[in-house]
Structures are given as C-alpha cells and as structure tokens.
Amino acid sequence: MTNVYDYNENINAGYLSLKRSFQKTSVISGVRFEQTIVDGVNKSHKNRLKRNYLNFFPNFSIDFQPNEKHMLQLSYSYRIDRPAYEQIIPGRIFNNQLSYSVGNPVLYPQYSHNVNLEHFFNNSIGNSIAYTHINNSIFGYSQTLDSTNINVDTIINFANRDMLTYTLFIQMQFSKFYRMQFTGMGIYSGFNGYVGEALISTQATAVSLTMNNDFMLPNKYKVQLSMKLQTPFREGIQYSSSRGSINLAVRKKLLKDKMSVVVGIYDLLYTDFGSITIDLPNQTSLHRQKRDSRRVMFSIMYNFGNMKIERKNITEKDEDLQRIKKTQ
Q: In angstroms, rounded to a whole number, what is the distance separating the alpha carbons of residues 314 and 38?
C-alpha cells in the first residue's frame, strides 16, 4: 500500500492486407495502424503520465518457388513491442536490505525494422539472413546508488540496437535407423545509447548451436541424444558467459505400440548455467545462478484408442497475455 498506481491503456487498431499471385511468385503487402492512449496516475506521489500517439506499421513479403525443391522468401516488417506491465509499475520489490527491483512508468515501446531473406531446399536445408534495427530498445540493468550503496534493478530505453543473424537449418534422414536435426546461428549485435550520462557503444558476435540425433534401434527402442552450445555474448553493458548441455533419453514401445516407456537425463554434464557481468562507470557487478538443471525423467504413456486432443495455440491476439509476465 506504499505505492498506488492506476494504469489505463486503450489501443485502437485497423488492418489492410493485399495478396497477388503469379505463376511462381506470390506477393503479400499490408499495413496496420494503431492509436495508443495511455493514462497512468501515481496516487501516492501525485504523478501523472498521459500519452496519445498514432503509428503505422507496413509489412511486405514475396515468395518465389522456381521448382519443387527450391523456395525463396524475402520479407520486411515494421513492428512495435510494448513493455510488459510489470516493467512499468513503479512499486518497489525488495529482494533484501541492499537490493530492490522497480519498474519504469515512463518506459516507451520499442520499434523495430525487420528484413529477412530465406532459402529452403527440399524441405531439409534452410538458410536465412536477418537484419533488425531497434529504436528505444528496452533493456534491464542494475545500478548501485552512491549515497546508500543499495543496488537497484530497473528497465530503460537503451537508444538503438542492430542485429545481423545468419541461420543454417539441416534436417536429414540418413537411414531408417538414424535421423538428425541441426541448427546453427551466427549473431552480430551492436548497441549505441546512454545509461545515465555514460555513453555505451559495443559490438559483439556469438554462435549458438543445437543438434538432435534420433537412433531407431531393434526391438522398438529409440535413443535420442541432443546437444546445445551458446558461446559468450555481450549485449550492451551485459556480458554473458558460455553455456551448454547434453540430454539423453531412451524410449521403449510395448503392448503393440500402445504403451511407451521413456527414461531421460537432462543436462548430463551439469553445464547448463552461466554468469552475467554488468559493467558501468565506476561499477562492476557479477550475477551467477546455478539451477538444478541436471534431472532424471521417467514417464509411461498408454494410448487407449483414437482419441484426439485439441491444443489451443497462442496467437498475436493474445498480446496482453504475453505482457502479463514476470520479467525481473
């Protein structure tokens, strides 16, 4: 009850989309307009936030399929990502005597230009190059108050961010006994902005690799071995260490394939954790979290018939549900 904050947000939106198909080419273009009206009142501190802004978000994509094995797609979109509601609540969440988290009620949405070029071959090999430029990038950081030595976790708009990503996806069935899926990503990220009065300008590269192997063995056994690796990466003032894991699972089918018994070990080598170092002028902090990621799972599944279960997928219409989440 030490901080009472009333927040009202009204979003009015309209959409227009056009599609045209040719012999081997299809083109989709559209635009979405949104008017956002914000009225936030901090009754405890007598502060008020009022905003009313109108945005237009164009999008465009072109698909070209010269034959059955090849497909090319080029797309562009301009989009908005609003902060989660918890990120804009000014109430303090106390972690301990020397640390608390607080939202930023004047946080702006971030806007991004996205360009993506993809090529698919025979539904088994995919290449893509993506470029993203973000304005008002939403970024969380920690800062120690000089007068009290209290550490504050909060959220800011960190000016501009550029990302260039290359992705390679391979899915191959080498034989009836072995199937493999591989995804590799090379990432470049550049930040330019201010934290307080300090100018932060960083450039960094990273590599992310995942690989899944399925071995179909006699007597209806299946062994799955998966691996992932993330190299060290710098995002603005944050430096994340490398991390990775190896997972192993064995499945056995019984009773005319109606029953499946699975035993799995996740994070076999106990390496799926890392640390984050935050560098600010006259301040360096280290965050290290080690979870119980190495686990053993055992499950039994039995199929009683041809029962079908419907699953509801989250779509863009559930944006509010995505924004109601814990972020700190």
A: 25
